[in-house]
Every structure is written in structure tokens, then in C-alpha cells.
Specification:
The complex is a heterodimer of chains A (about 290) and B (about 300). By secondary structure, chain A is an all-alpha fold. Helix content of chain A is about 75%, strand content about 0%. Chain A has 2 domains: about 45 residues, no CATH class; about 180 residues, MetI-like (MetI-like fold, Orthogonal Bundle), CATH 1.10.3720.10. Chain A starts with a helix and ends with a helix. In chain B, helix 3 crosses helix 11 and helix 3 crosses helix 14. Chain B has a two-stranded antiparallel sheet with strand order 1-2. Chain B has 14 helices and 2 strands; from the N terminus they run ααββαααααααααααα. Classes of the chains: A mainly alpha (about 290), B mainly alpha (about 300). Chains A and B meet through helix 2, helix 4, helix 5, helix 6 and helix 7 of A and helix 2, helix 3, helix 4, helix 5 and helix 11 of B.
């Protein structure tokens, strides 16, 4: 009886609106908020659109340099995408670095996430400390991370190059991967593992055939995160790269002299790949659900 | 005289088996060992090295450093560069406030009215950030250039004076910072707002609250920890940023990040650079502890 009364009252409230004004609520939630949100998204996408657009722009000056005015459509820069050797090698270095960093960071971060999700103190002594360190890694300004790493390499007299870049990239990616995977692991049902073990599987087989496939979308999300962090990283890379320069560092250096249109070509390519990966991860996530 | 059979006392049996064997007991430690080692050697140790470098004296020609317990370094660097610190605080603060104001409505909308497409909208928010940070900032320099898309058109339409410029001013830097750090604000805000139990809102309406009262007195106070977290998670990284300022700003509004970069890479003044870096880290730690103090049991990690 009371349930019926309260739902009636709720229905009456909804149609009549608060204090008899049915229009205000709809106006905000139907029109204003969504319009605002799409406006913000458009604002976020605007520079990307400009970048893609201007990668098709003709250049009228002698040097291959992006010009601010629109001179006409051309696919020249896509055909001559590797015309600048240093830029191309910087790009491939970034890709190799990101792939290596992703593999390492994903494995290490996933193991850490497994430890954090499944074990609590007193079984896992020092868990709180580990979480604090992870958080500090994420919250610290990146320049502090980069500068301190350079300080370490200088003190130890280690030559800066691909190896120091890789070490540094994995260092800042681990915490992000662990957090991403941990969030996805939270809903994992341990009884499935127990069932497998009841049926005679040992720990390794259980992990390989039951656990791993089920947590795979989470691991994929963590890997995507690590890849994006690495390929985009500028500040830390700027500090610890020596002669071998990754793509963002090269672009930053080129801002002084003039940026070639190929930079926009590469940027558009990275953007397209990123979108594809994101879509792929959504599809994989949906299939598993 | 009847000996108790173990099977009669399930507690005893369980007690025997509940102490895990050595391999099992070590599991959490083994799993977290690679990460722990990596973070120790390449995160914690560098921080200690940084502190120790601050106290050393460095030969700027060779980059060789000697430990001299030079505690005055911190004071020296602060007095030399305090205007850059102030500029950094100002720019980062302005950008963070702008981001909070801009992100709140969209985070609210996605959390409350996103429905099943929530993940899609969050992805749409993050999509622009697949492109490299440096390139995005360069494109903004492009867009805001004096004869570029925005200003050029406005000037041709005579809506702006011909000598109007945005680049090399503080406004451009703040705009760039606000753009680049928007996800750092929007995502924690979204997490905070999404956590609000909708039934609390229903209860407010049951008690005859207007929409305005419900928002101001129920929703907003519940998001305060999230607002604080979003502020910290945006302000601290923005404080150390220098790319935005270098690309969009001029020569008279440098931030502390540029100084640190120059110290390490150009001047080879590792001591000075480390001291400045340590000061920046200390500021970040103060913010984090203030959060823990003011908001008690809530940990900021929830918002990551």
C-alpha cells in the first residue's frame, strides 16, 4: 500500500515538476547540459581537426614549413612522409620505445595489480607503503621525475640513450598500468579459480586457462594506457634522451626553426591508430562482458 | 577416553591448513617484487639522489659535482627565481580553476545522464589526447597566431585591432594549460560525482527541496572531496609544466619548469636544478598532505 502511494506520489512529482514547473528540469537536462557537453568535446577535438586539415595544406614558401594560411589541398606530405630522415628516425624510435615500454610495464604492472587486489595486510605487509609510492609516482610533477632520473644517470655516469629512455618510461608507466588493471580486476570472481582447482588444475594451469583470459580486457586497457603514456611523453624523455631523440622531443626542438608538415602527417597517423586501438578495446571489452 | 577425531572438529582441520606453505605465503611479495624493485631503483632512489645533489657544488663546465652540504642552495635558488615560482603558481592556478569550472557540468552530465553510453562519452573526452602533447600545443600556437585561423578572420572582419595578439601573453599560456590538463580535472570529478548515491537525491526531493536547493545543499557538498582531488591532480602537474609556456608564452613570463630544464640541460647546474626540483616536489607533498589532513579518511587514490 505504502509502496503504491509513494510511487504514485513520485509519478505525480515527475509530471508536475517541482513546485508545478514542469519545464525547467527538462530544459536543463535535455538541452542545455548536453549542448554544453558537446561544445566542450568539440573544443577538445578542434585542434586535432586543424592538425589533420593542415596536413593536407600546400606550402608556398621555399622551405617545407607549415604555413598559417590555407594554400590549397595536397596529399604531397603523405607521399613524402619520410622526406626528413631525422624526423622519421625519431618517430620509429618512439614507436620501438613505446612497444618495449608497454610490454615491460604491462607485465610488471599486472603482477603488481594482482598482488594489490588479492592480498591484504597482514598477509601482504607493506601494501599500504606500496600504494603510497605508486600514488606519489603519479602525483609528482613530471619534471621532478625527469630531473631526478637525469640526476641519477649523471651520478652513475650512465650514457643517456635508448636504454635510459626505456628504463625511465617503464618507471613512470608501472603505476598507471597497475591502477588501470586493478580497477578491472576488482570484480573478478575467485570461485571460478577455486572450481578449476577442485577439478584438478594446478596453480599455473588455472592462471593460464581461467584467470588470464578473464582479466585480458583489463590488461589490454593497461597496455593501451602504457603505450599512450610512452609515445606521448615529452618532459621525462627530454631529460634522459641523449643523442637518440624520440618524436615529441624532436618536434619540440623543431619549434624554434620551423615545423615541417610531416609532423602533422605523423600526428594524424598516431591519432588514427589511437582511435582504432580505443575502438578495438571497446569491442574486446564488450565481447568479454 | 575417546580421542577426539580431527574430522569431528572442522575448526582444527581448517586451522592446520590455513597457514599457507612458504610459496603461497610469499605470493604477494613475489608478485609485487618486479614493480617494487623498479620503482625503488628508478623512482625512490633518484629522488634521494636529487636531494643529495641539491647539497653539492657543481662545476658548470664539466658537470662534476662534489658534496659540500651546501644547505644555502635552496634559499639561493628561491631568491633567484621566486618570480618564476609566482608566475607558475598564477598560471597553474588560473588554468586549474578554469578546468574545474569547465569540467564540472560535463562530468555531472556524463555521471547522471550518461546512461549506457557513459564509457563512450568518457572516451570522446579522452580522444584528443591520443595526439602528442607537444603537437597539440604547437597546433594551438598555430591557431592563435596573429594571422591564423581565429585572429586572422576576426581581424579581416575588423572585429579586432590589427595589432592584437594573444601569443606571448599569459592568456595564451593559461589557455594552453587549461586545454592540455582538462582530463586531469574531468576524470576525477566524474569519479566523484558518479559515486553519489542517487537515493540521497531522491530523499532530498522527498523532503520538498527545489532543484536548486538539492544541487547546492546535497550534490555540491558531496563532491567537495572530489573537487579538492581534481584540483590537486591538475594543479601539481601544471605547476611543473613548461612546454605550454615555451611554445605559447613569451620571454617575460617563464615558469619554474623552464628554469629547471635550463639548469639541467643547458647550464649543467645539477645542484641548482635539483634544489629547484626538490622545492617543487615539496610543494606537491604539502598539497597532498593538506588533502589527507582536511579530508581525513578519504584517500586521494580513490580518484585516480
Amino acid at each position: 500500500m505504502t509502496a503504491a502511494v509513494s510511487t504514485e506520489a513520485a509519478a505525480a512529482r515527475d509530471t508536475a515538476g517541482r513546485q508545478g514547473r514542469p519545464h525547467r528540469r527538462r530544459r536543463w537536462t535535455r538541452y542545455i547540459l548536453p549542448a554544453y557537453s558537446w561544445l566542450v568535446i568539440a573544443y577538445l577535438v578542434f585542434p586535432i581537426a586543424v592538425m589533420v586539415l593542415y596536413s593536407f595544406n600546400k606550402v608556398t614558401t621555399g622551405l617545407p614549413q607549415i604555413s598559417f594560411a590555407w594554400n590549397g589541398f595536397t596529399t604531397q606530405w603523405y607521399r613524402q612522409w619520410n622526406a626528413i630522415p631525422q624526423l622519421t628516425s625519431a618517430f620509429w624510435l618512439s614507436v620501438r620505445l613505446a612497444l618495449a615500454s608497454t610490454v615491460l610495464a604491462t607485465v610488471i604492472g599486472t603482477l603488481l595489480a594482482l598482488a594489490l587486489v588479492r592480498y591484504r595486510p597482514p598477509r601482504f605487509r607493506g601494501k599500504g607503503f606500496v600504494e603510497q609510492v605508486m600514488f606519489l609516482n603519479i602525483a609528482a610533477p613530471e619534471i621532478v621525475l625527469g630531473a631526478s632520473l637525469l640526476g641519477l644517470f649523471v651520478t652513475l655516469n650512465v650514457a643517456r640513450g635508448f636504454d635510459t629512455l626505456l628504463l625511465s618510461h617503464v618507471a613512470f608507466s608501472i603505476a598507471y598500468v597497475a591502477i588501470t588493471v586493478r580497477a578491472r580486476l576488482a570484480g573478478f570472481d575467485r570461485s571460478l579459480e577455486e572450481a578449476a582447482q577442485d577439478l584438478g588444475a594446478n596453480a599455473w594451469v588455472t592462471f593460464r586457462k581461467i584467470t588470464l583470459p578473464l582479466i585480458f580486457p583489463g590488461i589490454l586497457a593497461g597496455a593501451l594506457m602504457a603505450f599512450a603514456l610512452s609515445i606521448d611523453d615529452f618532459v621525462t624523455s627530454n631529460f634522459v634522451s641523449g643523442a637518440s631523440v624520440p618524436f615529441p622531443v624532436w618536434v619540440y626542438g623543431a619549434t624554434r626553426i620551423g615545423i615541417p608538415p610531416q609532423v602533422f602527417v605523423f600526428g594524424s597517423a598516431i591519432f588514427a591508430v589511437g582511435i582504432l586501438c580505443a575502438l578495438a578495446s571497446i569491442v574486446v571489452g564488450r565481447r568479454q562482458a | 577416553m575417546e580421542q577426539p577425531v580431527l574430522a569431528d572438529h572442522p575448526g582444527l582441520v581448517a586451522g592446520r591448513r590455513s597457514r599457507p606453505r612458504l610459496g603461497r605465503a610469499l605470493a604477494p611479495y613475489l608478485l609485487s617484487l618486479p614493480a617494487g624493485l623498479w620503482l625503488l631503483v628508478l623512482f625512490l632512489v633518484p629522488l634521494i639522489v636529487m636531494l643529495s645533489l641539491s647539497l653539492q657544488s657543481c662545476n658548470t663546465a664539466t658537470g662534476a659535482c662534489v658534496m659540500t652540504w651546501h644547505w644555502a642552495e635552496f634559499g639561493q635558488q628561491l631568491s633567484l627565481y621566486h618570480s618564476q615560482f609566482v608566475t607558475s603558481f598564477y598560471f597553474a592556478g588560473a588554468a586549474t580553476v578554469i578546468d574545474l569550472i569547465v569540467s564540472f557540468p560535463i562530468a555531472y552530465w556524463i555521471a547522471f545522464h550518461g546512461g549506457r553510453k557513459k564509457n563512450f562519452f568518457l572516451l570522446m573526452l579522452l580522444v584528443p589526447f591520443f595526439v602528442s602533447f607537444v603537437i597539440r600545443t604547437v597546433v594551438w600556437e598555430f591557431i592563435l597566431s596573429d594571422q591564423g585561423i581565429v585572429l586572422g578572420t576576426l581581424k579581416n572582419a575588423h572585429l579586432l585591432p590589427q595589432n592584437f595578439h594573444v601569443l606571448a601573453t599569459g592568456y595564451a599560456v593559461v589557455a594552453g594549460l587549461a586545454y592540455n590538463y582538462l582530463p586531469f580535472t574531468a576524470l576525477p570529478l566524474y569519479v566523484a560525482i558518479e559515486r553519489i548515491d542517487k537515493r540521497v537525491l531522491d530523499a532530498a526531493y522527498d523532503l520538498y527541496a527545489t532543484r536548486r536547493q538539492a544541487f547546492l545543499k546535497v550534490i555540491l557538498p558531496l563532491t567537495v572531496p572530489g573537487l579538492f582531488a581534481a584540483f590537486l591532480l591538475t594543479f601539481i602537474p601544471a605547476l611543473g609544466d613548461y612546454v605550454n609556456q615555451q611554445i605559447l608564452g613569451g620571454t617575460n613570463n617563464t615558469m619554474i619548469g623552464t628554469v629547471i630544464q635550463n639548469a639541467f640541460l643547458v647550464n649543467l647546474d645539477y645542484a641548482g636544478g635539483s634544489a629547484l626540483s626538490a622545492i617543487l616536489m615539496a610543494i606537491a607533498l604539502v598539497g597532498i598532505f593538506a588533502y589527507a589532513r582536511l579530508l581525513g579518511s578519504r584517500t586521494i587514490e580513490e580518484y585516480l
